[in-house]
Amino acid sequence: MDVAPVWQQVSNLNEDAVEWQHLPLASAIDPGASTDINDGDPDPMPRDNGDNRHGTRCAGEVAGVAFNDYCGVGVAYNASIGGVRMLDGTVNDAVEARAISLNPDHIDIYSASWGPEDDGKTVDGPGPLAKRAFINGVIRGRHGKGSIFVWASGNGGRHTDNCNCDGYTNSIFTLSISSASQRGYKPWYLEECSSTLASTYSSGTPGLDRSVATVDMDGSLRPEHICTVEHTGTSASAPLAAGIAALALEANPDLSWRDMQHLVVRTSRWEPLSQEDGWFLNGIGRKVSHKFGYGLMDAGRMVALAEDWTTVPPQHICQTVKDRTEASIPAIQGGSITAEITTDGCAGTSGEVRYLEHVQARVSLRFLPRGNINIKLISPSGTTSTLLFERPRDVFLEKFDDWPFLSVHFWGEKAAGTWRLIVTNGGTRQVHHPGVLIQWQLILHGTREHPERLRSEGAKGFPFSPTQSSFPSGFPSRRPSGDPFTLSILDQILAGSSPEATFATPDGTIIAGPNQLVAAHSDSAGDKFIESEVCHSQCLGGCSGPGSDKCKSCRHFNLQGECVNNCPEMMYGSIQGMCLQCDSSCLLCSGSSANQCLSCPLSDLYVLHLGICVTSCPPGYYAENNTCVSCSGNCVECSSPTYCTQCNHNQMLVNGSCITNCPKGFFKTQQNTCGSCFPQCETCVGGSILDCATCKPNTFLARGKCVHHCHKGTYGDPESGECLMCQSGCSGCNSESCTSCSEGWRLKSGRCVALRDTHCQIRKNEY
Questions:
Q1: Where do the CATH 3.40.50.200 domains begin and end in the chain?
Q2: Going by C-beta distance under 8 Å and a sequence separation of 6 or more, which residues neighbour residue 334?
Q3: Which fold does the domain 316-448+465-494 belong to in CATH?
Q4: Which of 113, 491, 690, 736 has its CA 20 to 30 A from that of 237?
Q5: Between vectors from CA 157 to CA 156 and to CA 158, what angle results, nearest 5°?
Q6: Do 345 and 414 meet the contact criterion of CB atoms below 8 Å apart?
Q7: 315-324, 612-621, 676-685, range with greatest mean pLDDT
C-alpha cells in the first residue's frame, strides 16, 4: 500500500476501548480524543476479560510507535490517537451518537469497525441521534472542513450478506473500506456491494495468507503477550485506511471530508487485485469492483495528490421526482421488471449536478422472501451497478421502505440522461406471490463544475466555507433559508426501513396512544345522527337508527359499514378502527403484510417472532405443535431444540451437535459432517480400513491400516504407534535390535551384518 513516512495527525477509534498504558501505544494516546461512554468517565481502559482487545489492536495499526521493541509499527506512527469505550456495555442510538461526535474540532478521523449484525438478513442503520451526529460532523467538524468517518464494510461474506443493507457503510458520509488478502484475492468474509470505496490488506485463507500484525491487549503488559499476528477481517482494514488518511491530512490539512473521498477514488489501484474477477470500467474509464471498490489504497499516491489538491467545488444535490408507478415483481425465478427515470441533473437550478459523486436510489418494494431480490442501476453512460445482491438467509421479511441504496461506481460520470432500475427475483427460494415495486427515486450528489483543479496547474482553488464545501448553498425553494442542508433531506438520504405503526393484541384489540383516534367514520351527507338509548351498543357518538350499521362512529371497529366488537378471522383492526384484510397466508394478523400474522390456517406453520405462515419451517427452525421454533446454538437446521441436523460452514455435525473439530474416532467429510473411522482407527482421514492416521492402544499403523502385528521386516514402535522398518538385513526385529536376519546376512550383537564372501564355505564348528 506504499505507506510513506508519517506526520502527526489526531485519529480516534470507536471500539471496546484502547489499552492506553500499552508500551507501543502509550506515547500516542491523546486524552482529548478519548472517553469511556460505558462507565461515564474519561479513561477508555478496557476490561481485561479477553473479549475487549479489538480497539487496542486497531489502535496499533494506526499509531503503533516507531522503533518499539515489542511489535510492528503503525501506518501513521507519529499520529495521536484516542479510544472510545462504547462496545463493552449497552449499545444504543445515544451511545453511537456520542462516540462519533466526540470533540469534533479536535479529532480529525473517526475509525469504526462495528455495525449491525452481519447475518445476511438484517437491514439496519443509524438511529435519529446517530444520523444527526453524522450530519453535524460533516457540517461543523474540523472547524467546518468536515469530520472524516472511516468504516469497515462488514464481515458477513460467509452468510452472503451485502454491505448496502448496513446503513453505516451505505452512507455518503462514511469512507467504506473492504479487505484484500495477502495474495490479492477476495477473503471469505468479504461482503460485495456498491457502496465500498476502496480496500486495504487484511487476513485471507488460513494457512495461505497471513493476518495483520499489531499490538495486543494484556493486562499485565507482558512483552511476550502484547503483540499478535492474528488481527483479522475488515475490522483490521479500516484502521489501515484511517492511518493513510492521516498521512494525506498532514500533507494538506485543508482537505474536506469530500476531498478525502475524491483522493481515495483517484489514487487507489486495481492492479494488485487484478487476479480477482469482477472488475469493470465505469463511464469515465475508471476500473471499479463490487468487492474492492476502486482498489487497494496507495499511501504514496494519495499523499502526493493531496499536496497538489485544491478543495472541490460546493456539493450539489439533485432529487428526481418519485416514480410512483407500481410494478409487479414476478414470482417466477429469474423474472424481472425495469423502471426508468429521465433527468436533466436539475440543470438551471441551484442543485444542478453535472459531475457525479454519490448516487442513491431510494427504493420501496414488497417481496417475500426479500433475500431473493437483486437490484441493478444502469446510468446514462451505461455503467451497471448492483445495488443489492441476493441474500439467501433473508427469508423472513418482505419490504424495503425508502431504503437509500448507495453506489459510488458512477463517480465522475454525467448525471443527465435516462437511468434504469432492474429488479429481479434472482434467488432460489420458493415464492408464493408476486411482489411489487411501490416507488423509487434518485438522489444525485456531485458538482456543477469539474471537481479536480490542482495547484500545479496554476489553479487558485475554490473559496472554502463550511457551507459551500459540505453542502450546496442553494436547494429547492421548500428548503428553509439559512440552513445549508435541511435535516428532512438528510433524513431521506440516511433513511432506512422502519416498522409500521400498527399494534394489536392477539385477539385483534388495537393498542393506541393517547392522541390516536381508534375508531372514526366520516359523516355522510344528509345523515341525521342522534344520541339515544336506541343506538346499538357498538355505536359511539350517536346514530341514525337502532342497528349497528347506523352508527355515527364505532366504539371498536368498522366492518364494511357495520360496527363490531372484534374483526373476524382473516381481518385485522387498523389504527383508524377499520377491519382490513390480512395477507392471504394469515388466519389472524396485526397488519396487511405477510410478516404480520398472529396465527395460521391449520395446514400451515407459524414462525415464532417473525409473524409469517409457511408450509415448512425455514432454515434455522424446527416444527413443534404447528409452530416453527428457532434452533439453538450453531445449528443452521435442527429437528429439536437440542438436536442439530446442519451446522455453520466452519463446524461439523456429530450426534446432533455442532462442533469445531471432530472427536477421536471421527473425520470431517466433504458434507461438513463427522464420519466414523474404521473401528481399529483412533483418528483417521477417511472411513476405510486404509484411512487411519493413528491407532488404538496395542495396535500399530502400517500404511494407513491399524494392525496387531507388524509385517516382516518391520516392528511396532510403542512411542510413535507405527510399524517402522527394521535395520538393513533384518527379517525380524524389535525397537532395540534385530532378532533374525535375511539371507546373506548374519546376526551379530543384535545387528545383521552382510556376509562378505558368499563363495566361502563354513565348515562345521569353524567360525
A1: 10-308
A2: 424, 425, 426
A3: Jelly Rolls (2.60.120)
A4: 491
A5: 95
A6: yes
A7: 315-324
